[in-house]
């Protein structure tokens, strides 16, 4: 009986480890000095979307100036967990990111994830960041995609279109597309696709 109890608790501990995920946030920001950066997100451990429950990041040495580690319950299949940053100066109100929310992607075997991000640093990664956001009403089970005339948007191939994410706020959908910087002029064309799957679009 004693051996069974030991095995039971060992199995329970293993199960808890598989269901938890440690997030290591690393942030590089041009707003250092007197500004305190925070991270918050949809997970309860990140405040459940409430900025008053956001987690402060600590100053560290290295190329990324701020960091913190948080353990959350791992998102299950079909669930999206988002996070975002803001900074709070000593005087004045919070300054939020000008890009859409970031999403956490994991695998079944993931137990720890390092997230390297930048805040308010122009062209810090040599890319142009496009933020698409639209209000669109959908039927239950429908998704929203964006397709366009550049490789990052599928070159008008609907099977390569980019999926957008539901913000759970008045039917808004959004996504981020990163483009390499170039000195040439480029005209970007795109359209939104509402579909149950990419083969059944409207």
UniProtKB/TrEMBL annotation:
Write the protein's name.
CBM20 domain-containing protein
Q: Which organism is it from?
A: Tritrichomonas foetus
The cross-references to Pfam families, in alphabetical order and at most eight, read: CBM_20
The record's listing under InterPro entries reads: Carb-bd-like_fold, CBM20, Ig-like_fold
Which GO molecular-function terms appear in the entry?
Answer: starch binding
Starting at the broadest rank, the lineage of the source organism is:
Eukaryota, Metamonada, Parabasalia, Tritrichomonadida, Tritrichomonadidae
According to the lineage, what is the superkingdom?
A: Eukaryota
- TM segments? none
Q: Which residues form the CBM20 domain?
A: 15-121, 122-202
Q: Which PROSITE patterns match?
A: CBM20 (PS51166)
The protein's matches in SMART domains, at most eight in alphabetical order, are given as: CBM_2 (SM01065)
């Amino acid at each position: 009986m004693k051996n069974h109890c030991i095995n039971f608790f060992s199995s329970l501990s293993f199960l808890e480890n598989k269901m938890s995920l440690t997030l290591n946030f690393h942030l590089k920001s041009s707003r250092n000095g007197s500004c305190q950066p925070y991270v918050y997100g949809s997970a309860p451990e990140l405040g459940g979307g409430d900025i008053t429950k956001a987690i402060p990041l600590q100053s560290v040495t290295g190329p990324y100036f701020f960091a913190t580690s948080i353990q959350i319950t791992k998102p299950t299949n079909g669930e999206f967990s988002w996070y975002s940053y803001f900074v709070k100066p000593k005087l004045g109100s919070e300054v939020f990111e000008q890009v859409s929310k970031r999403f956490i992607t994991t695998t079944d075997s993931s137990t720890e994830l390092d997230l390297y991000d930048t805040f308010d640093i122009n062209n810090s990664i040599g890319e142009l960041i496009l933020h698409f956001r639209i209000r669109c009403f959908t039927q239950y089970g429908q998704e929203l995609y964006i397709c366009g005339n550049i490789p990052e948007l599928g070159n008008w191939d609907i099977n390569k279109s980019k999926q957008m994410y539901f913000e759970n706020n008045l039917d808004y959908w959004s996504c981020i597309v990163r483009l390499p910087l170039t000195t040439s002029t480029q005209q970007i064309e795109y359209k939104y696709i509402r579909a149950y799957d990419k083969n059944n679009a409207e």
